[in-house]
């Protein structure tokens, strides 16, 4: 069927499919959708590096693979160095024009692989590092990570011992490394996600894309609500969508009418136990973080450089 | 070309001759001058390689693994704590069937901190699926790096070559350097049968169900069996081309000896002097040097020890709770031999943490072994202070 002319420019998402059916993600998995959209954009000249994370399973057991491009599964903490090293290997053997993409969960990024991530960013290794962030160790059965937000239930922060520590701010930490390009995105905004991968592909050096990735079993949310959760994360400013170039120049990608964080929290059973006061505290921290982000944007504009 | 090189520089020049394409390394005493020399060789353009300056040994090995999977020949070097930190990735390289080559400078494990030699660091990696060579001289270090690539790439398994801290790493000798052109005649460019190729996508390292995993391990074992032949061939061919060969083991005055000492690493050179001296005094002693430790050249060891009455194994290592590791390996190799081909095996723990193994110590071991009439499997500690 031919595309209707008036819909031609409706979306920038490519029609081609590189990821195949037969993957083993849970229904409503944000990480599966994120990969599908990313690969549509990255194309076949891509090597994927996947450490221990949900995607180590999602791709399918040996000898199957749903990715449609070469996949190199690596040790939990080694996504960044493995991808960087593949780039050095390609350079050493004269192979050009290939996207080398590390594709890691929040455990592999925020926690166990954090030192190696920092080192790869400091070396400015020529890779696209993607963290699909479902905010806990979902592959091992929902244990807290340093990406788990304040207030969340996990199997290691159960009952009254819900998580009392704040989520690390990944993009700010990586921006402080002065990486050439960093961005946040999420699956409810496919055009935003695709545009950021395209932008990352046009830049050399270390690029970070941080994807908020709903996880129905881990967030205790309905499978049908994954996209809604993703959208509410942005609208409530829990997960602002923005880009940082060279660690200094900020661009806000989206500034929709502000939604109360309660709308976001109410979609997820992992926040069900929170009192009104605790919810108000989350609202307060979200508002403060937003104000800080706005401030950094202005500082970037004022100082330039 | 001849140059005066340390053992560490010899390792670096070996990697230069072999034209390693990616070096991924992190400094640790006493390995440091290997990677300094490599950095110099790369900076001078004498080695056209990418040098990944990583933030840890774990990343050094992960870097070799990634670059090797992309189709490049890789090299790294480490020591002691660094090797221990790499442990997870040593398994990864071996099970991933990636022919990485690494020099390990034998150094005792901490605590307390010791920068001096013993073999516990490398021997603790025995079961990772790496080949292991123990070197005795700087020339042997350089030559073994080149041979290591030949063997590794023939069987798709990684190779570790080991040299003693300071006794080799920082000691100068005249070393013959074959150079890249002559080495190329021996070691052709790396051509992996499978690698990360966007034109022929494969998935590496994914989940392997219970009905498949064992077969991967079995194939590794077959490759290790083949490695024994390949290592022998590689050494013979090296000897033909460059006039130097080492064997997988070396027998020194052992054919007619009643007592045979077994060594690996630099203690071998000292032991040779002691053997000469004892022979001159009419004693029936000989020496067996173990150069290749994995795969263990069991048949060669059996043949070398078949005719003697007793074996004294010098272990510069200790498997706490069991004894010296070389002694265990040799006992295991000889267990199924008929009694007349199975000498007494006495295991000596000696020279840990860099304590010097001087000729008098080796002579003391030979004396002790000759006095023993019972093969009781005890570990015997030499030179212990009260």
- Molecular shape of chain B: globular
* Helix-strand makeup class of chain B: alpha/beta
- Assigned CATH superfamily of the largest domain in chain B: Thiamin diphosphate (ThDP)-binding fold, Pyr/PP domains
Based on CA atoms alone, the radius of gyration of chain B comes out at 21 Å
Trace the largest sheet of chain A across and list its strands: 2-1-3-4-6-5-7-8
Provide a count of the helices of chain B. Answer: 12
- Side by side, the strands of the main sheet of chain B go 3-2-4-5-7-6-13
Task: Describe how the helices and strands are arranged.
The complex is a heterodimer of chains A (305) and B (386).
Chain A: H1 30-42, E1 46-50, H2 54-58, E2 71-73, H3 79-92, E3 99-104, H4 106-111, H5 114-122, E4 128-133, H6 170-175, E5 181-186, H7 190-201, E6 207-212, H8 216-219, H9 226-235, E7 242-245, E8 249-252, H10 261-265, H11 276-303
Parallel strand pairs in A: 1-2, 1-3, 3-4, 4-6, 5-6
Antiparallel strand pairs in A: 5-7, 7-8
Chain B: E1 2-6, H1 7-17, E2 22-25, H2 32-43, E3 50-53, H3 57-69, E4 74-78, H4 80-95, E5 101-106, H5 120-123, E6 131-134, H6 138-155, E7 159-164, E8 172-176, H7 179-186, E9 203-204, H8 210-242, E10 249-252, E11 259-263, H9 267-280, E12 285-290, E13 292-294, H10 298-305, E14 310-315, H11 325-334, E15 344-349, H12 359-371, E16 379-381
Parallel strand pairs in B: 2-3, 2-4, 4-5, 5-7, 6-7, 11-12, 11-14, 14-15, 15-16
Antiparallel strand pairs in B: 1-8, 6-13, 10-12
Helix pairs in contact in B: 1-2, 1-6, 3-4, 6-8, 9-12
